[in-house]
Amino acid sequence: MSLPDAALEAFKRAESLTPPPGRPNEPRFWEAEAFFRLKRFTDARAAYDAVFRADAAGPLLVDVILTLPGLLIATRMV
Q1: I need a surface site. Which of 6, 35, 38, 78 has the fewest CB within 10 A?
Q2: If you average pLDDT over residues 24-28, what whole number do you get?
Q3: 27, 20 contact by CB (below 8 A)
Q4: Is the pLDDT reported for residue 20 higher than 70?
Q5: Cα distance between residue 19 and residue 41, in whole Å
Q6: Contact of 29 with 51, CB cutoff 8 Å
Q7: Is 63 exposed, middle or buried (0-12, 13-18, 19+ CB in 10 A)?
Q8: What is the DSSP letter of 2?
Q9: For residues 64 and 48, is the Cβ–Cβ distance under 8 A?
Q10: 27-78 confidence digits (pLDDT tens)
Q11: CB neighbour list of residue 53: distance below 8 Å, 6 or more residues apart
Q12: What is the pTM of this model?
């Protein structure tokens, strides 16, 4: 298992903890980042969207917004 794959699994496990560690939606955000680095752009987009929908005014909003242009370019959605 590659390091990014291992990180992805760790973030998925962190999401199931009660309460989840870190800021709200942080495990899901880092899962999205891992998907992005693995070039699994469709999964990354879904994960970033889930973070945004869960708390559009949350502390991770800026990070999600700053990542979206790169994601759109990577998937040629622009």
Answers
A1: 78
A2: 84
A3: yes
A4: no
A5: 28
A6: yes
A7: middle
A8: -
A9: yes
A10: 889 899 889 888 899 999 999 999 989 888 888 888 888 888 888 888 876 4
A11: none
A12: 0.74
> In this predicted structure, what is the pLDDT of residue 78?
47
Nearest-angstrom CA–CA distance, 36 and 45: 8
| Top-confidence range, 3-7, 11-15, 46-50, 74-78 | 46-50
Alpha-helical segments (H) within 22-60: 26-37, 41-54
User: What is the distance between the alpha carbons of residues 13 and 56, in angstroms, rounded to a whole number?
Assistant: 23
Taking a C-beta distance cutoff of 8 angstroms, is the pair 21, 9 a contact?
no
* 34 in Cβ contact with 54 (< 8 Å): no
Residue type, 41: F
Are the C-beta atoms of residues 67 and 35 closer than 8 Å to each other?
no
CA 3/CA 11 separation, integer angstroms: 12
